[in-house]
Amino acid sequence: MAARPVTGTITGFVLRTARESIPRTQAAMAETLGVDLATVQGWESGRRPLANMRAVDLLGLRRRLAALGADAVVVGMLDAAMDADRIISATLNSTDRPHPLAEWVHTRDTAHMLAWALTGTRPPSFAEIPSQRRRGPTAASPLLPVRDRSAFFEQLRTMAEAAPRTDPRGVLLHRQALYLTSYDKSPEAVAWTAQALHARRGLPARRGWTPQWAEARSTATALARLGDPVPLLDFIERAMAGDDAGEAANLNYWAYWLGGTPLPQSDDLFMRDRRLTGWDPVTLLRGLTYGLHHAPGFVDLYAHTMWALLTAHPWLPQASGVLVRELAKRTEHLLDAGGVSERSRRELSTVNYVLRDRT
Question: Which residues 6+ apart lie within 8 Å of 98 measured at CB?
Answer without folding.
Answer: 169
